[in-house]
Amino acid sequence: MLSTIVNFFRSSLGKIAILGILSAIIFIMKIQIDKIQAKLLLKEQEIAVLQNKNKQQHDAINRLLTFGQKQDEVLTSYEQDKERIAKALQQKEYIIRQQNDEKSQNWKKQNLPDSILSVLNAKP
Predict the structure, then answer these.
(1) Cα torsion for 60, 63, 69, 70, to the nearest 10°?
(2) Rounded mean pLDDT of 7-13?
(3) FRET partner for 87 with CA separation of 20 to 30 A, picked from 20, 34, 78, 103?
């Protein structure tokens, strides 16, 4: 039996069968390699798309952070302007009160003209 198998593989038909089997195995392996390469290419494309989306999101986050910093600077500037205006307003109010106090004191010290006194003293 063993000698028959050995003789078969020594014959040209046996060699063709071996070549056929090896060709089929190589063909099947080539198909599997092609499928794996196609999957790998698809995964690489997915990775490229995800990396691009990640970069876009990272850029958007950076823009938001920059915008937030600018908003903080603007808010700080407005707060400083508000404080400066409030101080200027307080100073002006103080000056007006001082002037009113001085005018009131001066008015109290002055003698009123008779015409104004007659109007003030007039009885209805």
Answers:
(1) -140
(2) 72
(3) 103
